[in-house]
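[stage:ingest] chain + small molecule (glycine)
[stage:ingest] validated
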Amino acid sequence: MKKHYDTAVIGGGIIGCAISYELAKTQQKVVLLEAGEVGRKTTSAAAGMLGAHAECENRDAFFDFAMHSQRLYEPAGQELEEACGIDIRRHNGGMLKLAYTEEDIACLRKMDDLPSVTWLSAEDALEKEPYASKDILGASFIKDDVHVEPYYVCKAYAKGARRYGADIYEHTQVTSVKRMNGEYCITTSGGDVYADKVAVASGVWSGRFFSQLGLGQPFFPVKGECLSVWNDDTPLTKTLYHDHCYVVPRKSGRLVIGATMKHGDWSDTPDIGGIEAVIGKAKTMLPAIEHMKIDRFWAGLRPGTRDGKPFIGRHPEDSGIIFAAGHFRNGILLAPATAEMVRDMILERQIKQEWEEAFRIDRKEAVHI
Ligand code: GLY
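[stage:predict] done
[stage:export] tokens:
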């Protein structure tokens, strides 16, 4: 029998699962197609920081979108727990962004006027986190840059989507998407499925679909290597962050430590140099990690774009195809807002114009150098 859906979502990471959930909730008939297993690639490699303040350097549409997504996590966590019984393991300690130089201080103090941010002297910061490095000159305490556990968020979205009637096919590789008689034929390793709309949310692997669908937007992996350690004796309640590296305290008692930024590296195996660099950096933030027991190492491939911002928008010449990919360092943070935006595009609802412009597929910053 021919399988026909309102929307086919390609990619079962956190973005694809969140989109499927939001659409299924509106009674759309949704199919999600994942080449491997849901949430097992880039999503499960992420630390899960909801770092809207930590990761955004300018007060632009991207920051506004990131803040909106950060706020959506609060009700989303409750809703997902009620809908499917999965706790997304939100950890509410916030973040200390550490300053070691006058330059760091100048940069961090640009955030002083934001409601969630408080500048702390070194003494006050060390009172909050006594095991942080004594070399700091101060820190920004960011109350709202909390963290969640990405694999649990993704599984919760997937389970919730199923509960609302979505079909999820794992181990199902999409090989092509073609427009045929007013619908799309999606050819997969498990046979053809048909849909009125297609959402491409395959992270760094979305580049293949961009080129197949006639677009040349460059995508590249930015490999991040991480490790986790068991923290038995060193109380730490807040994420420590400096220069894109972080020590994130999990509810399990582990610390997640990351991450390198290796542009163009497609291997998802960490190497010694990468792990050594991450450990070296973490020791400058939390010297006590030197004595902690190693849990495991891993690496993930962030989906890089030329301007570091995602593509969330319609194919410029085919409005039935919507892309939601290229979230670089912020896939976990941006998942709820991305899903909301894609849902609204598919249902032809009003979208905030600044966001539509900022993430459009053919913006010149992402296409040309
Ligand atoms: N969001 C943190 C990272 O990409 O390493």
